[in-house]
Amino acid sequence: MIPLTIISGYLGSGKTTLINQLLKEAKKPIGVLVNDFGELNIDEELINNEDSLTLSLSNGCVCCKLNDDLGISLEQMKELNVEAVVIEASGVAIPIKIANYGLSWPGFRLLGILSLVKGKSLKHLLSDKFVSKTVKAQITQADRVLLNRFEQEEKDALSELTEDYLTEEEVGSYWNLLFKEMAASSRPEITEDNHHSIFQSFVLETEKLINIERLESYLNNNTSIERAKGWVRDEQGKTWLLQMTRNDCNFSISNYETATRMVLVHTKDLDIKSLEPVYA
Fold first, then answer.
1. Cβ proximity of 93 and 195 under 8 Å
2. Same-domain status, 55 and 119
3. Which runs of E-coded beta strand occur in the chain?
4. 108-118 and 2-9: which strand pairing?
5. Cys bridge to 241: 212, 254, 258, 259, which one at CB 3.0-4.6 A?
6. In terms of domains, do 143 and 165 share one?
C-alpha cells in the first residue's frame, strides 16, 4: 500500500514551498499530484521533481469535481514505483472531500490531511465573509496543522480552532511531518456546499510586455483578488515570477524564459478592462 497524504491550506499558505522542502530531503521517489484553482496550473512548474513524478490535476478544484482525472493520476503513480504520494489541494479546496475519495482508492493508504496556515493572514481571513468558512474547514478538518510566519496573537487565534498544530521551528523531518502516521480524525460526510461559487479565476496570457509597477498597483488596489501567481515579461524582456497573496506582492527575477502567463483568483467580478494600462 502506498502512503498518501493530502496537503491543504489557503491560497498562498506555502504548500508548494513545503513540497519542495520535502523533495529536497527525500532519498526515495515521491509522487506529487498538483491541483491549482483555475485553468493555468502554475504550481506544477514550480515543483522541483522529476517530470514523470509530478502530475497536474486539471478541470478546476478537485474537491468540487472528483472525477476520473484524480483516479487516473493515482493509477499512474502506482506504475511509477514511488515510495509515497502527496496531493497538493487547491488553495480553496475542502480537504475532507478529497480524503474521503482517497480512503477508498485501491492500492493507497491514506495517512491524513496536513493543512498549512500562514499566521500573518489568519485573523484577516477568519473575519472575511467570503472565505472564512473555507479557511476554518481547512483547519478543523486537518489531522495535523503547520503554522508559519506568525506572531503570538496568531497562535492564539489558531488555538481557538485546533490545539493539534506545530510551527515551522518544530519540524525536524519533512518526511515524518507528512508520512508519519497521523492521528486521523473521523471523516464526516460533507453536505453539499457552494464554496466553489465564491471563487473565480482569470488567466492572463499575452505576448505584450508588462509594466511591473502598474501591474503591482492594479493587484494591490483590487481587494477582491485573493491570489495572483505566474510569470511576467517586462519592458526590458526580463521574466519575473509573481507571487501575490492578501499580505504580500512579490516579483522575483526568473531564469524561466516565457511570455506573460499568470492566474488571478478573486471573489468578486474584476474590471478586466482596467488591466489594459499595465501593458508597456
1. no
2. yes
3. 2-9, 30-34, 54-56, 84-88, 108-118, 144-148, 165-167, 200-206, 225-233, 239-244, 249-253, 260-266
4. parallel
5. 254
6. yes
Cell of 232: 511576467
Q: Cell triple for residue 153?
A: 496573537
Are 146 and 115 contacting, i.e. CB atoms less than 8 angstroms apart? yes
Q: Residues 33, 101, 167, 180: is their CA dihedral positive or negative? A: negative
166 and 223 both lie in a single domain: no
Domain boundary pick from 152, 177, 194: 194
pLDDT at 46: 86
Instruction: Specify whether the CB–CB gap between 105 and 87 falls below 8 A.
Output: no
Residue 226 burial class via C-beta count within 10 angstroms: exposed 0-12, middle 13-18, buried 19 and up: buried
Structural domain harbouring 65:
2-194
C-alpha cell at 261: 502567463
The string of pLDDT tens digits covering residues 189-228 is 555 455 556 888 899 999 999 999 999 999 999 989 999 9
Q: How many domains does the chain have?
A: 2
Give tens-digit pLDDT for 13-53: 999 999 999 999 999 999 999 988 766 778 878 888 876 79
Upper half-sphere CA count for residue 5 (Cβ side, 13 Å):
26
User: Each residue of 204-213: pLDDT tens digit?
Assistant: 999 999 999 9
For residues 22 and 90, what is the distance between their CA atoms, to the nearest angstrom? Answer: 18
Instruction: Show the DSSP H helices in the chain as ranges.
Output: 15-25, 43-46, 68-79, 95-103, 119-126, 132-140, 152-159, 174-179, 195-198, 212-221
* Distance in angstroms (rounded) separating the CA atoms of residues 138 and 93: 8
State which of 194, 212, 231 marks the end of a domain. Answer: 194
User: What does DSSP say about strands 30-34 and 2-9: parallel, antiparallel, or unpaired?
Assistant: unpaired
Give the CATH number for residue 183. 3.40.50.300
Residue burial 145-165, b: 16+ Cβ < 10 Å; e: rest: bbbbbbeeebeebbeebbeeb
